[in-house]
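_Per-residue structure_
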Amino acid sequence: MDLTTLTYIAVGLSFALYIGIAIWAKASTTGEFYVAGSGVNPVVNGMATAADWMSAASFISMAGLIAFLGYGGSVYLMGWTGGYCLLAMLLAPYLRKYGKFTVPEFIGDRFYSRTARIVAVICLIFISFTYVAGQMRGVGIVFSRFLEVDLLTGLIVGMGIVFVYAVLGGMKGVTYTQVAQYCVLIVAYTVPAIFIAFQLTGNPIPQLAFGSTVNGTGEYMLDRLNQVVTELGFLEYTTTSKSTIDIFAITLALMVGTAGLPHVIVRFFTVPKVRDARSSAGWALVFIAILYTTAPAVGAMARLNLTETVQTGPVGSPDGNLVFEDRPEWMKRWESTGLLAFDDKNGDGRIQYYNDANAAFAAKAEQYGWKGNELKVDNDIMVLANPEIAQLPNWVIALVAAGGIAAALSTAAGLLLVISSSISHDLLKGTFTPDMTEKQELMTGRIAAAVAIGIAGYLGYNPPGFVAQVVAFAFGLAAASLFPVIIMGIFSKKVNREGAIAGMLTGLVFTMSYIITYKGVFITPLIANTADNWLFGISPEGIGAVGMLLNFIVAFAVSKITAEPPLHIQDMVEQIRIPKGAGAAVDH
């Protein structure tokens, strides 16, 4: 059976499963729409959280980042997994004990202020829309390649699917849909990795193959990879060009950003008891680790396969580069998406793939008659293209397509529900129209989700960067705005509403301005995005760590010169932290 037919079958069956679950688990109350009725088993919730968490950035883009950044890409692994330790210890049990629907609701009550709640909603919307732009781009990439449609058509189809199961099923439908999506995406990620690991090293376990010898050479995989990339002017795979401070800042921003992401936090409102919230975080980390420990091997194998496909002989030899007309079918298929391209700069009909930004190697390349790097490969295609490069069976390639779509759609649905609940529950019901009936609130939530899907589709079509980079920006915004105020709300009785509002606005505005200045989101960048121009040498991906510190400093400073929180608020803070909440959660 041909690849296109198999892909339609795999993706079609997975979509039928998701929509069927949404219809079965249709939300009939606001409690089911927002937090699945707070009755989800912690193991099930852990699996749903893993799917919610392992977005297109994790499935599609992270291994691609590692493939091209090498050791430097490890910051994403450390940051995105380390954040779950913070969630389990510092946030999940306390927020579940508080027992409300949304993060802005907690912030509004804890800081006794409608304004604080509105500011939290604004922060949440900026974070969620930035994050969802990456997911929708992931959906478009998968559809444009495997269903052989253009990016816009792929986005529209993906938006339609999300609309059905997010708007109809709410959090209840999304939770059980995400369990199915986790099963799909983890099988789709690990099966090709096992095939390729065995093909390259004879060891079927990717995590072990990563440190094994390559078949027929006797060289360890990383040694072999270092050799082939340095021969083409790239940095050694096991080194990084990032500075220590930038690595630290990116890791910190991703960690605290994880703990501050509203669509992840809200998952811990869906379990019955406080102890279940911590248990859910632990299970989520187990399920996530299966993919995250596989990703470094996938990235390394993809880079090795790509480089050896193009570089068929010794660097500089007349027959050392792949003849363009003899390129494999997978390259032709990806060329149609625009995410892989060949520009024959010296007219010899061969593909010169090397680092022409390396001045030392560029001089050597001129001796070979090369006029510049001729191959453009988008980071985001490496995981999807890897099974094709390795010439795996078509059913494996079709499975990867279904997994990539599952990863992107699961996170997109969670984010869109957070946006929906913030608008309907926090802004309208909680602030502007408190007399709204439950039925009206439920309808408003669905309308808000539908509008959010439209905006998300536009952002997916016009994203400010590749998938993992866009997602990193969202984490920076979460780290700088919501994480500090939640932590202070739980652990400090002295931070008041003025301090919380000032801190959130400072962190959000600073971080957003920095990203826009260097990345030019919807505008031309104001300053060249180079290490020489960065503040303290910290890239836009890591600037959320600085925004977080500014948030803390401003919040404590403003609270110091303004009135203390009322006594009943200070008592509430004490009550939230009392350990006896291991039983049923109490609403305040």
Summary: Confidence is low (pLDDT under 50) at residues 580-588. The domain at 3-302+388-475 is CATH 1.20.1730.10 (Sodium/glucose cotransporter). The beta strands are 340-342, 375-377. DSSP finds 23 helices and two strands in the chain.
